[in-house]
# Entry
Amino acid sequence: MKKIGTLNQPLSSVISGLGHLDTIVVADAGLPIPAETQRIDLALTKDVPGFIETVRVILEEVQVERAIVSEELLTKSPHVYQQLQELLSEIPIDTIPHIEFKQRTGSACAVVRTGEFTPYANVILVSGVVF
# Structure
């Protein structure tokens, strides 16, 4: 049995397979996920697990060089954007329109669906390198 890191097998597998510039999306409960994109559904009930706690766990294992969020997050759920900024600290965060964000999820290695019920609580994490 694995004793550290991400215990969810599909999520652990995706994380270990990420290469430079690959993307993984952490999504709220309502983000549409394209049929061709791997869905890792962690949602149990409303807000469980939460968006920020899921991002925090993923960041323990993934080298992220930048992040992308919807422009709408800044105005509709600014408290989540502030928490994300604090969590990502020195990692640049780009903003794009939500319609474009949804289109980009189709090229992600996976979309991790959380139980988050906060509007626009979604992020695309762009994998970096550790050397």
